[in-house]
Amino acid sequence: MSAMSTSPKPEAMVIDQPEAEEQPPQSGAEQDEQEEEEEEEEEVAPRRSTRVRKPVIKAPAPKLDLGSDSDLSDAPVRRRRRRKSTAAKQAAATTAGENGEEVVSEPPPKRKRKRAAEPDQEPKEEGAEEEKGNEDEKPPPKKRAARKKKVDNEEEDSTAKVGNGEENAENGPAAPAPPKRKRAPKKPKEEGEQEDTKMTSPPKETVTEAAPNGDAEEPEKPKRVRKPKVKEPVVYVIPDVEKKTTTFRGRLGYACLNTVLRAQKPAVFSGRTCRIDTIQKSGMDHVKELGRQNVKDLLTMIEWNEKNNIRFMRMSSDMFPFASHATYGYDLSYCDAELKAVGELAKKYGHRLTSHPGQFTQIASPKENVVEASIKELEYHAEMMDRMGLDQDAVMIIHMGGVYGDKATTLARFKDNYEKKLSDAVKRRLVLENDEICYNVDDLLKVCPQLNIPIIFDYHHDSINPSRRPASELIPIINQTWQARGIKPKQHLSQAREGAVTAMELRAHADRCTELPRDLPDDMDLMIEAKDKEQAVFELYRIYDLHPVIWENLRPPSEDQGLKTKGRKSAGGKKMRKDQKDGIPVPETEEQTIDPEMIDELADDDDI
């Protein structure tokens, strides 16, 4: 027996493993090729990197003469030794397996990846040299730049480069790799030193204060300042008017609202109001502040009227919202200074201010609660005018109200309530107006001379609910009621819309008036009750050349004002039917009757 057979066999560790298919042993050349392929896959495999490296410029690799082992570098020598040791271990494992013992061979140690000696050309393996012989050498494919190696791999590469020094000398010295740039360490900031930034000084919006708990609040982003849009002035096309003549030289006025000022931003008007729900949520201070703002805007309206030659105006009945309410009512002492300013300005310019309480003000109502609410409303208006310091020409206009089944009884009830329940402040300013439904001038003359109450003659109402006598005979009698009290007479003018037929349509006021009444006295204050407000006054100014107008304040009339109105006065439009002869739609014009007892529930256009 040989010495090799007498040596004791090492005890092998037996482990239960699943049987694997036996593979034939590979030759050294096949193993070399497989390892080279694995190295190429590892080197060519893409690697994720977040750092951008500058390309390293290297000198071309010298050709290696692989004829003798002495010319090879140490790296190929070590590689061949490892292969021999691996082959010996595999042979020992194969011999142990032939004797029937299961042997678990330890996996070969992982080789550390090495940077290729030259990027363009890789030294060929020994087995490949013997097979190819003296065939022409072909350059290997280019590979990607290897990842940064550890220090020990760099030392091996430097050893390989020293072994090839003679060949490198023939092709010229290799260019040294450029040194890597290193970042300079940041200098520590000194106290009070600020970082250099592009902005010379931080904006005021970015300055933040430390929170009480020590955490700094995030700076607010500066808001973008938008350039204001330049709106071109609106050019209105004002149509010409048909010129007429008159001997009238009195004052024309409008009611409550100025359309030019109302369309401005911010709007100017004196009719701000709210609901009871708003009062419950916001409190009484909110509703009182609305009244204060209404009074302030009234000052602006008076100034505007003076510039436009309008010296007669009706104040809104909603000047102080809910001032006469049974639960949320309040006195006007908190706004005394503003009210005095209005009265002083009106006296300065010689303007006449009046008021028209709402349609629910019914002194002759058979319901006691309605009478009490009406008295509170009149007291509120009287207090407002008294605090303004207005004279006797500042009157309050109301209607007699409903018939309630018996006109004579209603007139007697009105007389009784007027004498017993109204205060002197209310009686001093109260006047009555003929209406278009229940009470014409003939009816009012039965009560007003006895109670010394002036009568306002409304031309439009008299045309719908006329008296027995014409206006030319009634006006002198009416003027006597004014003269008895020393108050300047006033009248109301309006007209129905074009095409109005039914009672409801006739009651609705047109946007403008086309002419003055024929029987109008020369010196009379005439209130124009039209939807276009101050524009209706300007229209009559231009037609009769009463006063010059400012052209910029003129607005064109509506092309089609229609017959529908807001509220219950509207007939809901015309019902159409088709004529059986020619199929042309024809409007139905059935006359609509109005119950006189419902007059207290109908809306009145005088304060709109």
From TrEMBL:
Basic residues composition-biased segments: 141-150, 565-578
Lineage: Eukaryota, Fungi, Dikarya, Basidiomycota, Agaricomycotina
NCBIfam families given in the database record: uvde (TIGR00629)
GO biological process entries: mitochondrial DNA repair; nucleotide-excision repair; response to UV
Compositional bias of kind Low complexity: 64-74, 87-96, 163-174
Domain of life of the organism encoding this protein: Eukaryota
Keyword Nuclease attributed: yes
Biased composition (Acidic residues): 30-43, 588-608
Residue stretches of biased makeup (Basic and acidic residues): 116-126, 187-198
Protein name (database record): UV-endonuclease UvdE
Keywords: DNA damage, DNA excision, DNA repair, Endonuclease, Hydrolase, Nuclease
